[in-house]
Design brief:
5% of the residues lie in helices and 45% in strands. The chain has 174 residues and is mostly beta strands. The protein folds into two domains: 85 residues, Beta Barrel (Elongation Factor Tu (Ef-tu), domain 3); 70 residues, SH3 type barrels (Roll). Strands 1-2-5-4-3-6 form a six-stranded antiparallel beta barrel.
Length: 174
């Protein structure tokens, strides 16, 4: 099973076993809907019920079932709060998680031309870093005009780049 970290527990808070967490999700609304999560401390994962979450100074405070003392909370300092990948927060149409894009095959006119190696967010639009078959790296804007088909389930992205787009980047120097 694949896991997604949504917060990191940084320290205990109070005397009832509460934990302060640094959010790792771009969707703060997801935390109020949590009912159960998995705490991952150095690869040891434990399922816990979420009793309550609230915001305090741009950080989250978690109260978990079964963690009700400072000593018990201290054991989870540095742990990741995770959910199964299938429970990620849903994105609006046309938006994608970077982890879903990386590794996708890139096709042009029915021919595989490369693989997405990274996703950059330099401004208003995402850029796909694509390792082309000839070894060059290309930056492809993730916009419908250039990427008319994004098939996450099929792990492929069809591009229709404007003339010269794939010729702009030079070979990578190692």
């Amino acid at each position: 099973m694949d896991w997604v970290a949504i917060a990191e527990l940084v320290r205990p808070r109070g005397t009832r076993g509460e934990l302060v967490g640094e959010p790792l999700s771009d969707h703060p609304e997801r935390f109020s809907a949590l009912r159960r999560v998995f705490l991952n401390a150095a690869g040891a994962r434990r399922e816990v019920a979420v009793l309550e979450t609230w915001w305090h100074d741009r950080r989250l405070v978690f109260r978990f079932d079964g963690i009700d003392s400072i000593a018990e909370a201290e054991k989870w300092r540095g742990a990741l709060v995770e959910v199964p990948a299938g429970e990620r927060w849903p994105l609006p149409a046309g938006r994608y998680y970077h982890s879903d894009l990386i590794g996708c095959r890139v096709e042009r006119a029915g021919v595989a031309i490369g693989v997405v190696t990274d996703v950059e967010e330099p401004g208003a639009q995402s850029l796909l870093s694509v390792r082309l078959a000839d070894g060059r790296q290309a930056s492809v804007p993730l916009v419908p005009a250039v990427c008319p088909e994004v098939d996450i389930a099929g792990r492929r992205i069809v591009i229709d780049p404007p003339e010269g787009l794939l010729d702009l980047d030079s070979p990578e120097v190692e």
